[in-house]
Amino acid sequence: MADLVLHTRVVRGSGGGPDKTILNSPRYLADRGYPMLCAYLRHPGDRDFERLAELAERCQAPLAPVDDYGPFDRGVTRRLAALCAEHRPAIWHAHDYKTNYLGLRLRRRHPMTLVTTVHGWGVEGGWRTAFYYWLDRLFVRRYQEVLCVSADLHARCLDFGVAPDRCWLVPNAIDTEEFRRSAGAVPAAERAGVPPGRFVVGAVGRLSPEKALDDLVRAVGRLVGEGIDLELWIVGEGPERPALEGLVAELGLGERVRLLGFRGDTLDLYRAMDAFALSSRREGLPNVLLEAMSLELPVIGTRIAGIPQLIEHDRNGLLVEPGAVAELAAALRRVIADSGLARRLGAAARRTVEERHSMRARMERVREIYEVALGRAARADRSPG
Length: 385
Hints:
The chain has 385 residues and is an alpha/beta fold. The protein has 15 helices and 13 strands. It has helices spanning 17-24, 26-29, 49-59, 75-87, 97-106, 126-140, 151-159, 213-225, 241-250, 266-272, 287-294, 307-310, 325-337, 339-356, 359-373; strands spanning 5-10, 36-42, 63-67, 91-94, 113-118, 145-148, 167-169, 199-204, 230-235, 257-261, 275-278, 299-302, 318-320. Helix 8 (213-225) packs parallel to helix 9 (241-250), helix 8 (213-225) crosses helix 13 and helix 13 packs across helix 14 (339-356). The mean pLDDT is 91.
């Protein structure tokens, strides 16, 4: 008997890292008894949602857009109730504070098992966002199964009262067959404009304060000032773009820092990079870091959240303290100057992702959790990992 899983998430624009996981999930479990429908709450006027719809089509993920006019739109509950009445999901799998709340409301009318994935709680956005995140902790405690994408989030969920036997550590993962370096691949068109011998550092993600991309721009500026021939590609869109453009102009880096915006060809861009840097001050376990590692890029990440569980310093990447521009510049200097180190880190990074973060293995773990949630497998206390 097949049991429908209804993934639910609020999204703005083209989405982010969690959406890669959500939209890649259906093709792994559809033939294992768990067909899926991805219900995305989005403002009907958000034209950037089309990019996420294109991603869903590429992933062969059934997508159900749900109109959501904001926090005071009571109609969104009615629209989701109609979706539940039509599809009768056995499992409601939420991915943020609003869909956690809506799942609790709708279960009164539509009996279903409640599962949630905790992707992270930031602090940006002011008092209102902080209040929503506080409420979310209350909602999460009432869910039957809680999946956490990193060890620090798992520990935080336990700290605020999620029962250990309902709290699961399920790290993010990627399709290692898709994200594989190919000798015959044609690099991104941007590489054609890079002078021979210049080193390209890449960063991919939403241009938002917690990503601290200004730190990365300043680090690159230091190296350029030393006469090192490199440039930085930043892939993504977000509210920090004007500030980053201003910083690039202020530092005179217009020919060395490219803000490439949203791109659908990130795989080609990764293949055209020489190294990858993640300068975030707040993160969970970012998919972009897994993608870069799977493509054998030497990676530099900040020592926060789940990143030190993924990167072992000097073995499969380099770690720096968040906000430490000089330390970030020094790490970049190392991989630029030592090609042997860069190759060794990249090869070890690929092995790490293959062994610990393959999408197929992750989804088998999720299937096991669904079996427990529906009472088909025994529940037992577990330790993280």
